[in-house]
Amino acid sequence: MLRSGSALRVLWVRLLWTQVLLDPVRSQEIYAPHSIRVEGDVTLGGLFPVHARGVPGTPCGDIKKENGIHRLEAMMYALDQINGDEDLLPNVTLGARILDTCSRDTHALEQSLTFVQALIQKDTSDVRCTSGEPPVFVKPEKVVGVVGASASSVSIMVANILRLFQVNGSCAEEGAGWKGRIRVL
């Protein structure tokens, strides 16, 4: 017989898996942890250091409230304000795909590839399902611009990737290292 604590844990896990399987937006968190997706007609990317650097072997550490969460909340608030005012962008809703840099330039670079996935042509002609059914591909949203990356080193690395796909970026820090190397929105 299960103790009440164990029974609650089992119930919680079942509820979580049911929610993940039934909600495709949430299920993407399995494949893209530390991300937020907001549906919209036009999608902006966001890169913020929500977590500190992790210990060796893990990309992310503790949550950074002031430099990470607050910046993420500021972007979400701005989206809410813009989307709530019909005079600013009539009949257009701004969406977002916000990713965590984990305060690492290499992790930010890896995450930034998510923003250009929709712009890369994929050859799926050799993909087959064992059941014989045609494969279902979820097309990633097209990101038109990226906000964030608070450190100069992160901004420079991300800007180099985004520039290849003609995606504009913005930088939170006005360091001497990025001037002239990043197209600013």
TrEMBL record:
Residues 71-167 form the Receptor ligand binding region domain. Its main location: membrane. One of its GO terms (molecular function) is G protein-coupled receptor activity. Keywords: Glycoprotein, Membrane, Receptor, Signal, Transmembrane, Transmembrane helix. Residues 1-27 form the signal peptide. The keyword Membrane applies. Pfam families: ANF_receptor (PF01094). One of its GO terms (cellular component) is membrane. It is found in: Membrane. It is a multi-pass membrane protein. This is Receptor ligand binding region domain-containing protein. It comes from Kryptolebias marmoratus (Mangrove killifish).
